Amino acid sequence: MAAPNATDVLLDYDEALAKYEPVLGFEVHVELSTATKMFSAAPNPAAGDDPAAPNTAVAPVDMGLPGSLPVVNAEAVRYSISLGLALGCSIAESCRFARKNYFYPDLGKNYQISQYDEPIAFEGSVEVELEDGTLFQVPIERAHMEEDAGKLTHMGGATGRIHGADAALVDYNRAGVPLVEIVTKPIFGAEHLAPQLAKAYVATIRDIVRSLGISRARMERGNLRCDANVSLRPRGETRLGTRTETKNVNSLRSVERAVRYEIQRQAAILEAGGSIVQETRHWHEDTGTTSAGRPKSDADDYRYFPEPDLLPIRPSAELVQQLRAALPESPTQFRRRLQADYGFTDSEFRDILNANVLVELEETVGAGAAPAQARKWWLGEILRIANARGVEPGSLVSPLHVSELIALVETGELTDRLARQVLEGVVAGEGSPEHVVKARGLAVVSDDSALLAAIDQALGEQPDVLQKIRDGKVQAAGAVIGAVMKAMRGQADAARVRELVLERANA
Amino acid sequence: MAGEAELVRLTAAQLAERLDRREVSSVEAVRAHLDRIASVDPDVHAYLHVAGERALQQAEHVDRDRAEGRAASPLAGVPVAIKDVLCTLDMPSTAGSRILEGWVPPYDATPVARLRSAGLVPLGKTNMDEFAMGSSTEHSAYGPTRNPWDLTRIPGGSGGGSAAAVAAFEAPVALGSDTGGSIRQPAAVTGTVGVKPTYGGVSRYGSIALASSLDQVGPVSRTVLDAALIHDVIGGHDPHDATSLEEDWPSFAAAAREGAAAGSFEGLRIGVVHQLDGAGFQAGVRQRFGEALKRMAERGAEVVEVQAPNFEYALAAYYLILPAEASSNLARFDAVRYGLRVDPGDVTVEQMTALSREAGFGPEVKRRIILGTYALSAGYYDAYYGSAQQVRTLVQRDFDACFAQADVLVSPSAPTTAFPLGEKLADPMAMYLNDITTIPANLAGVPGLGMPIGLAPEDGLPVGLQLMSPAREDARLYRVAAALEAVLEAEWGGPLLDRAPALGLHGAGGTIRSTPGTAPAPGAGTEPDGGTA
Amino acid sequence: MSDATPPAVITAAEVTHLAGLARIALRPDEIEHLAGELTQIVDAVARVRRVATPDVPATSHPLPLVNVLRDDVVGAVLTPEQVLAGAPAAQDGRFRVPAILGEEQ
User: Fold this and answer.
1) What is the dihedral of CA A60, A63, A66, A68, to 10 degrees?
2) Which ipTM was obtained for this model?
3) Chains interfacing with C (3 or more CB pairs < 8 Å)
């Protein structure tokens, strides 16, 4: 089904910015990678690699069975404190959980255990570096702990989307996965860089949680989810405009596009004398548009009250101090350090940042690869595939596998060309590079006798070539080398073939 | 070997001794109770589900273990009834609601699991007001339970089934749950004993929640010692319930035995809560209450009047907190994962849920869910729920002040004796007033014990006394209650339940209904504790 | 959580709204009846406001425990059969429900 408002009128971006000031706000949900869920001892799917079969990671409280009770995961509390500290927040001396009451089939209890009036972390600031190196401080309102909901699959209808479906299936594996929701204050002053700031902010959160080791942070898997609030106000106006909240923005690129789209869409409405409806909007990756969701209404009466099944949490000063001392460097510091360590130029480094592969690159180097090689692969073949598919490079392949791939080339077991085929296999989920090499039979043929046999055959078919080489026309070897490579189906080291051909000619 | 009729009249402690001496087997004890249930429960309707063969199999297992010298506990082989609010692996757990009809949980509630580990044998699940909302068991979706003392009257609620089961000798002991008096008020009107432990003293895991900050599971029995024995088994820390206390609890049975042996109240300061000594309480209730105080004073207790001015607001606070928490706890009954589904087809999931809840919930549940939704809704939170939580603080402060002057507090367990079925069904506020004496303990989390202290002269029905002690001082209640029980039973010449009318027995042929007319009319001279001021 | 003064009378319209929040398809006669009853009950319970002065802290738990936490160690889960044992309708190992009209939260 096409987005219902595929006919949204958009105002030219520069014109929109000339007349209106964009004000942003973000709610980012981070799925923590603890071993177990927030309130049950069921294994946490957000910590794992493989999606589990439906309803196989469910404890009674995750599906809201009568009589079941939640108990807070201590590790999730520590992760949340670390994240709060990394966001520059104050950690509450005492915080508590509250019930957010609303009915939805993916919510087993029909209330979400969240934090309301007493979040674990509040009042912080995150330094975000834009593409041109500008540093921007994003003010953080709060970070609070809560639980994720289950997953719905819409059945029937044309596309499996919610509209037009005639049934839905519910899987509670994800229900109860620990979440931290990070809420910013209104962000002013980004101006024409607002879309870029949005992307950089989410990327920074991703880098922070990864460096803390508290989330897998795979946006395509929903480990990191962003709701982007956008409002516009006419230049000179001091009151905030009506905002929309765009959900379902599941990649960094989409965050940037969605914010840009909302700015242009809202500006067009305001220009035409209309007014913005405060509503949820859904981002459609395929069309690059947003569509209206449910308007804010009485249904948002969540009837929060303190969760009676859980007690307040008072993190000790010692614990907070200990977690503070263990904080890794900030993403900005991290970038500065890596650029210096790896010796990349500013322009090389900017390409890495733009492709959002810095963390992957660092992990690839950490796994043993040379920085230049790591950069070559992440910005080369991997980025090419990612762009073709419209996904993040990091979602395609793990840094460990890239490092293994590079090692195979270094040792001569693979040629670059073969390595690209191996990468294809790894991306296709066929296993580690070693595994793909074996399974696809892609190793370089390093047995000279096999090569010599192929060379002799080729020389036999092109008898004039030997004489040409002996006459000094070394480039004539190319024809033989090509034939040999073809015969070996690419699985030979062209340089070695050339050596052997020249040896034969000069023997 | 004892006859079946005698077996069912044994207390759990007595039965345990005979089991231990192998004078009687668990199979015999269980069979005797199953037979008793078959003969009287058609009238009483204490049970929603009877375990039958499965209970006998479990009893056989216990007998075999004992024969091999592996009795799980001194209570191994004793039958027990379980309030239907508690999850049980092998029996449906409906909480008295149509919406959970036939639902069999995949786990045992912790108190049930502990009973099983101790070798007690569940006889079945007892009736209750739907989701424990009520004071008469008339709000059960499966029909009311009748008071064994007078089948035209209510057995109290919400745990009327458990109280009636032990009063009618259909089980020696039972489990109940008490959110605002659901153990103590039924005990009062059925002449039995019931204890609401300190909040957190018994795990709530597997107890289908009504109001999470008020609910507490506890024992129901005919004697103080039996309640203590069960409390010893079910109590103690449970990591599955975050509100469970990590205490080293003393033996409550030892406390009860101590109290019974002493039979004295020397050095005990008893606080009579002025605000719970209500004008407006039934005359016979006040009379028996006064007499019980006198007995204790005669035997060394110092009786002082204490003031708890904010108890006046406790009922109001309770009827905000309970519906608020209940409205949220009961949201899970949405016809998606379990329970009744009404799906006429061609409706959305929202409509399906709303239709199922409309069909599956009774009027009292709907009333409280709507009230709770109102109390929490935007704009009214501070005025209602917030204020009620503040009253809770004031009630706790009142308790603190009272306990500075007295070791235990006392009041009548309920304002009246058992009232006729149907009398208060149409008047929710009148029904709510039944819990006026028991609610403060739930708000503050302190333990409360209800026990019989005689029959009201005007109607010959049981009157109950409530004892309350500071949080974590449950043992004190058992000590004092056992002492008073010993004094009263000595005076009566036996347990109060000996005075209960015989129930009509159902043979193979049909039903002999017991009617009020068949119960012996109480006369002042034959009354336990009657008129001897 | 504002401190609005609640109305003295609960109307049928308000009960209808509350029934929507609570997802109960009340019949019109139930709504009328409940409006009357709730007005009476709310009138009775509103007395909590008399003593709830700002200096009194709220108590949400009867016993003041803190930091009750669980170690992050994987424990038992339900089998898929147990999960679905009570399902009114199931398909492909999941619960089946009629179509959803509203938006995802």
Assistant:
1) 40
2) 0.93
3) A, B
